Amino acid sequence: xxxxxxxxxxxxxxxxxxxxxxxxxxxxxxxxxxxxxxxxxxxxxxxxxxxxxxxxxxxxxxxxxxxxxxxxxxxxxxxxxxxxxxxxxxxxxxxxxxxxxxxxxxxxxxxxxxxxxxxxxxxxxxxxxxxxxxxxxxxxxxxxxxxxxxxxxxxxxxxxxxxxxxxxxxxxxxxxxxxxxxxxxxxxxxxxxxxxxxxxxxxxxxxxxxxxxxxxxxxxxxxxxxxxxxxxxxxxxxxxxxxxxxxxxxxxxxxxxxxxxxxxxxxxxxxxxxxxxxxxxxxxxxxxxxxxxxxxxxxxxxxxxxxxxxxxxxxxxxxxxxxxxxxxxxxxxxxxxxxxxxxxxxxxxxxxxxxxxxxxxxxxxxxxxxxxxxxxxxxxxxxxxxxxxxxxxxxxxxxxxxxxxxxxxxxxxxxxxxxxxxxxxxxxxxxxxxxxxxxxxxxxxxxxxxxxxxxxxxxxxxxxxxxxxxxxxxxxxxxxxxxxxxx
RNA sequence: GGUCCCAUCGUCUAGUGGCCCAGGACGCUGGCCUCUCACGCCGGAAGCACGGGUUCGAAACCCGUUGGGACCA
Length: 487
Hints:
By secondary structure, this protein is mainly alpha-helical. It is 44% helix and 11% strand. It is elongated. The chain binds one RNA strand through strand 7, strand 12, helix 10 and helix 17.
């Protein structure tokens, strides 16, 4: 295996993590972060760890947790370890904070929010940065008074984030605050819990959204204070909506499972989001195997990208067309409408019904872009009672076509073989004898067979429906024309 | 407001100093194929934000400007 990261061979086994806060569904940005972590782990033969950052009990919900798992499963992003929950590790954070306290690397602080606010404003007014002034640093407050635990930050020098995607990002330590590690209610803050977890889980590479890059210098200092080895960092750019702001609910469907409901295939989704920020030369289509073989951090771009639903649609159409009908059957079943007079009885997932459906899917899948469209196209082939499209008389299914339909009824009825060549020859000789173009026969026939103005090729439609059903449908159209003028 | 990041067609991107008066893809568009609709194929319009450097040479390196974004407050 070749190593492709900027900093040479990994000194330790590759262990990456996806660490969502369960405060909503798995959205496109989160899914891409998870995907990049998954692919990186797979590529390097490492481990992909799932960690639920649910320390915010107010905003975290069970629904979000299961929604995130659901989304990851749908996309096929299997994790090797976890899920771990931060809410189950509260004792661990307290213990780590106590150790820092004992080592003089942290201190208790009882400044009230009001005090803090007053001093912050005063600092601002005096033209100073509005950070914590360190009042409690050396007070050695007793443990039995209400307090927060703050990190005793270094105040001089630079903190350099050696980012695999952005290069070195330099922060002035003086602008970093004495950040709170443990709140007065004994819960850990985000930055503290993350560092403890990443250290405990021996994470080798932190691959996450670049909305976290400003947190990184603080985290680096915490790793150092803890005496834990520093992981490598890779901050990937955000995905934006069309208005170029961070993707959120305002931009419409942003959860990945919403796309499942809209009839998208998980492989198309994966292929789309992997190309948002990552590329391999000019290649657009990647199999899962290729992704694992080719993925690297070197070719992750550094500018944010905008979600483009049109391209996702195109990719989905591509995957629909290139997926065997048999594999499209299970996912399309939920999109089939209820039928009035079905050709088959029973469930559509097995037996002759399933066999027929697979053939119908194979005829249609190249003309539909989503499972929703596919599901909508199938009913005329599954149901004897379909309506006639209002444009059909214009398209040729009208009084003038009556003789042709009757001729078709006779000739098709007398066939003893039923294959593409026979049907093709039948239609060819009929058009030649009558001096017609194929369209003048195919169009009314299509209307009679399907009630639709568009369909797969006329021979394929006949083959699919079978001789008896085709004849029944032609008879129905003739009757309807004779009785009602137009169908 | 502070800190940090970003900047190639409308969008996703290739590009790691000469192969680029910039390549691919989506979308748009002209045509071909054709029984309908798609698919497919061939063609077209469309971009290096701006200004300075560095260099024999800059989309690429540096500085600045402008614009955008994220985080914190």
